[in-house]
């Protein structure tokens, strides 16, 4: 059976998860993501547990569907955060999580990555988050086979579904993660619509009409414009401002509905994952 059928839908149904990444990264991100999920088109979010505003987000998003955005990088030059576990291999020369995934791959030990990912999920649970899924900030857990194994381990340990790239992106990466996750019994989305730097509204209008039946995810990075955003993201703030606008645009909501998509969050995928234990 296809994933949509296993979820109780018709074989030709198209389901769409609209996920707000980077919840907890800033106060402006929290407010924008909250608005996107309560008044806009977003159906889900993921929490960056090590970030300074994560604890605020837990209160703001109470009752909403929130996963854990496993965080092993810290990409902003002037706004830095550290791991929860404090392991030396996870940090750069300044004592913070490194800025790039290549630095993670070069420095981090699998043992330390495993402990950190587990700690982030456990911290979210301890804060009272009813964690719906796991995904990965900047895709760090999804490219290197060593850390992908940790990604799958966490899904199995906590009985949570994963965000996975779609078949076309996987082919470009050259790593058969989808087959490995499926063989392990992990539930994950069929397609993933994301292209950093391309306007999300344009991407959705181009890609969504072409999607086959199944469960697709679009990820958004909504942040309110202002001094806070422009203080930490000096290079690409407009991407985040525009993603908030897309999430709140009635025309985009109408477009998604006109395409026949049924909005869902990761929660039904989590229920399916746990039913199979």
Can you tell me the CATH topology?
TIM Barrel
Tally of helical runs: 13
- N-end to C-end Cα span: 18 Å
Shape: globular
Structure, explained:
- It is a single chain.
- The protein is of the alpha/beta class and 277 residues long.
- The protein has one domain (3-73, 132-275): TIM Barrel.
- The chain has helices at 3-6, 27-38, 54-60, 101-107, 110-126, 145-158, 167-173, 177-183, 200-207, 227-232, 237-248, 250-258, 267-275, and strands spanning 14-23, 44-47, 66-70, 134-136, 191-193, 214-220, 262-263.
- Strands 1, 2, 3, 4, 5, 6 and 7 form a seven-stranded parallel sheet that branches.
- Strand 2 (44-47), helix 3 and strand 3 (66-70) form a beta-alpha-beta unit.
- Helix 5 packs parallel to helix 6 (145-158).
- The chain is globular, with a radius of gyration of 18 Å.
What is the strand and helix layout of this fold?
Blueprint: H1 3-6, E1 14-23, H2 27-38, E2 44-47, H3 54-60, E3 66-70, H4 101-107, H5 110-126, E4 134-136, H6 145-158, H7 167-173, H8 177-183, E5 191-193, H9 200-207, E6 214-220, H10 227-232, H11 237-248, H12 250-258, E7 262-263, H13 267-275
Parallel strand pairs: 1-2, 1-6, 1-7, 2-3, 3-4, 5-6
Helix pairs in contact: 5-6
């Amino acid at each position: 059976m296809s994933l949509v059928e296993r979820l109780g839908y018709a074989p030709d149904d198209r389901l769409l998860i609209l996920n707000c990444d980077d919840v907890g990264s800033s106060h402006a991100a929290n407010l924008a993501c909250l608005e996107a999920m309560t008044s806009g088109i977003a159906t889900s979010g993921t929490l960056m547990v090590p970030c300074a505003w994560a604890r605020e987000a837990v209160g703001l998003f109470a009752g909403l569907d929130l996963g854990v955005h496993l965080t092993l990088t810290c990409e902003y030059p002037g706004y830095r955060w550290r791991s929860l576990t404090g392991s030396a291999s996870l940090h750069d020369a300044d004592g913070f999580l490194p800025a790039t995934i290549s630095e993670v791959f070069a420095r981090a030990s699998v043992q330390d990555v495993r402990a950190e990912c587990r700690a982030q999920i456990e911290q979210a649970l301890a804060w009272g988050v009813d964690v719906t899924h796991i995904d990965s900030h900047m895709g760090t857990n999804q490219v290197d086979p060593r850390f992908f194994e940790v990604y799958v381990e966490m899904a199995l340990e906590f009985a949570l579904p994963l965000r996975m790239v779609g078949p076309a992106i996987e082919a470009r990466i050259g790593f058969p993660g989808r087959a490995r996750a499926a063989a392990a019994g992990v539930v994950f989305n069929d397609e993933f619509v994301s292209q950093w730097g391309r306007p999300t509204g344009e991407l959705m209008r181009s890609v969504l009409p072409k999607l086959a039946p199944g469960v697709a995810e679009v990820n958004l990075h909504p942040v309110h414009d202002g001094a806070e955003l422009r203080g930490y993201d000096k290079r690409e703030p407009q991407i985040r401002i525009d993603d908030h606008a897309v999430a709140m645009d009635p025309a985009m909501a109408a477009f998604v509905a006109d395409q026949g998509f049924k909005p869902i969050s990761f929660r039904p995928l989590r229920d399916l994952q746990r039913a199979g234990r």
